[in-house]
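Q: What would this complex look like in 3D?
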Amino acid sequence: MNAHRIDNVENNHLYYQQDQRAPMTYMTVVFHGGGFQQEQKHLEGVARITARTLFRGTPTLTREMISRKFDLLGANVEAGASETDFFISISSFSKNLREVLNLVSSTLQDAHFPTMELDLVRKQELNIMEASLQDPDRVLSSANEYVLFGQNAMGKFGSRGAIDRITRSDVLQYMANVRSCPTMYFTAISDKTREELDTHLAVFASDRRVDGFSLKPEIKFEDSHGLEAVIINSPEATNDRLIWSHRGIDATDDRRFDLSLIIDALGSFEGYLFDQLRNKNGWCYGAYAYFMPATTRPGRIAYYSDPSSENSAKLIPEMLRLIDVFPREKEFIERLAERNATFKNRYAYQLDIKKKLTNEVNRDRYGIPILDQESYNKRIDAVNYGTAKQAMDEVFDPKNITMVFYGDAERLRRTLGSLSPAIKITAFEKEVLVE
Amino acid sequence: MTTSNSYRQIDEIPLIGNLTIRQYELSNGLQTAIVVDRTTPIFTYQTWFKTGSADEPPGHQGLAHLFEHMMFRKTTRREMGEFDRCVNSNGGTGLNAYTSRDQTVYYFTFPNDKLEIAADLESDRMVNLLIEEEMFETEKGAVLTEKNRGLDEPMRYLWEELYDLVYIRHPYKYPTIGDVQSIRSFTVEEARAFYENFYAPNNALVIVVGDIDPDQVMTTIAGKYGNLPRRLPKKREITSEPVQNENRSASLTHQKTTQPMLAMAWHVPNMLHPDHAALVIVGKLLTSGKTALLNERLLHSSKVTELYAEPYLSRDIGTFEFFAQLAADVSFTEVEEIFDATLHELHTGKISGDQMEIVKNNILKEIYQAATTPSSLAHKLGDGFINTNDLAFQIKAIGQFEKVTVDDIRRAVDTYILGAKSTTVRLIPAHR
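A: Here is my prediction, written as structure tokens for the whole assembly.
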């Protein structure tokens, strides 16, 4: 089996799927390595600020003029940043694609980040960060990453102080480095042919410098030693929310076939946890297990639930127990035995064009890669209780779990404090996520 | 058009490209819509029941939603848990449901060779559901947790308060999930009565979109549902909403709110009213596209972080709604004044050709997007069926949008917003 890593994308390559149902093109221009992994500590948020200001002015076009041109062409164009990439997402009527790409390309070259627009974006960014704090699930998810990345910048909504410090010069410098990332590639789903798109995309490739941001190694998740709980104190919460996780496997680890079936049997809507905690007890609305995907760093096995505050003290110890004992439980084993059929029946979803495109770019990402049906079925058939048991023994780690909670710290401390083995508990206020 | 003893084809409506909507009816009244899309060898299967929270008896808010949960439990043919396991082992995904004011929708997706199973599962629970005391009480716990989740969300709180204020008598005033007291008080008998009253083939629409053969689908559906008896759905007992003769407003706080939020609403007619298209266009002129009027004046100037204006059109009376999440240093008055001034501008009729072209671009893009996303397409069809009795209503409405004139827009703004009474809810951060 071909085992590629996700940083193996090719410069100037178009990853492409054709879809002739509608005269539309959905495209991304990706500067690989231009994401917020490049931000310096005192300039957290500069990638996002740069992205949000990119289409807000050139020496000859104001923000409003650029926006109107895109609107009239039937195009929606947004820039953004992920951990590794700086990207531009484009959706456009295919008949206007050449004009849209020309405008994207010229703006990329000429964007001059007017001070007034930067100030507006800065203000918007601060307000969005504040608004994020009112959404319990977003706070929990952000806090989980913040904890797993060692309570540093990653995972936070942002930093008020850093946003205030970012100058126009910082943004110009950041954009210059993004433009000249050694690897720039494109993805497209379009009714147009690859050849037509390649012709349109030539405008991006001419004389491009390649001495800018290079992809850095990703920061690894920190593993816990024993059971370590972090509570985002929210005394007014009407119910608790939790994400727990422990170390998983690498992106191309062959055990991902076994793990996919195990996680489905354990943590799906029809899984063992949902059945035990929700269907049989009604303690929560959701109870799931899922993958935090591996990239070039190992992924994690994660668990989510949202018990009402009155049932939280019952759910927490029971969920911990189930994570420990499930491999030996008859009801889980019966579910697992059905998963070979489930996964073979699910082969059809592998042929979805969006999935195919994602798979082409990310190659063997955590989970099951796209194979021809015969190879796929063969690999799924090779999963049995013996191989799954071995994967469970090797990968599942109920003794070393990072437990992130959103809820009343005082009450949760009491619940966690009564459990054995002892759990190391810390708490912080959600404000940490924007400081 | 295909006809057999047990079903007849009613219509065939071109969508885009090779996509066509085929509409059928079984002799027992079950409606079916089929769209063949062979892009991926799967199909989406949705069942829409023409019943929702507006059908609940007075004092029984939340019954339709709690009942929806019970539909995943047990039938005379399937033990507890068997439904979910059957879906899963056959490669089904996306199994879920939702309840709204006027509809309850059940949906999943399957590989293209599992049509028989999908139809069997849905036809079974349409008439064979068993509701037992113990599982009913357990499910109440899950629903109460769901209710609690909502109480943590300022946005949900804001809209619940707005609908409570904008409607005086109409059941649209109540949140679908109900309140804690009513959820706790429901009995098994009430849930069974709800099932008997509203779940029947002649009160439902089945939508199948994907890599399927229409004749095979209809043969399967006729086989699985054809013998299900018609029932006389209980007639809706809705108290009509009185005309709003006064502006209404409320200012509230919520512990979780960090940004001020503003929601405003005006009564508008139902979806079948001829002004439907003009109201949709008004909403799009205000907030659809980067250069839409309010996006320019409020969003890009960073006075607000979120914004929309659009009609919420239903089977009964609807609302035209405006929502804004404000920047911390911006006052409600400032945003309300900008909104009001923008509406007056629309009312003068100063709408450029560019603005109208952008709106039409956006409507066309939405149709393309929906037509190529089976779940979105099914939603458009179901929405038409529930609100207008015409599942192709949203598709046919494209023709109506084309005909909307500046005068139509002026009249809609005047009749339903500027010349009408408003309801306003302002949500203020507790720690501001």
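A: To summarize the key features: Chain B touches chain A through 67 residues (CB under 8 Å). The longest helix of chain B spans residues 133-151.
Q: Very helpful, thank you.
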